[in-house]
Amino acid sequence: xxxxxxxxxxxxxxxxxxxxxxxxxxxxxxxxxxxxxxxxxxxxxxxxxxxxxxxxxxxxxxxxxxxxxxxxxxxxxxxxxxxxxxxxxxxxxxxxxxxxxxxxxxxxxxxxxx
Length: 114
Hints:
Blueprint: E1 9-10, E2 13-14, E3 22-32, E4 35-44, E5 48-52, E6 62-67, E7 72-81, E8 85-91, H1 102-106
């Protein structure tokens, strides 16, 4: 069974976080053209998220993440991956579609962990 933990190390290198991460456990969908994969958004920050998937190898490097049935839509690029997890960075397609504001993500964070 896959762990929900998103490690702070990858390939033996400790990563420095630019922004604090918040536990969400929201459900989402990874969409690339006609294909899609279910996922869980384990944690999120202003700049990215950690996603839990059945098989990270089948997820493309760039995709759209849809969370909480259409409430949040954001373009993502995979920064790291292991068997069941993806670390993603949010990217803006253009100035008309910036990544979601932090308040949109905070709505998904349980009040017990804020």
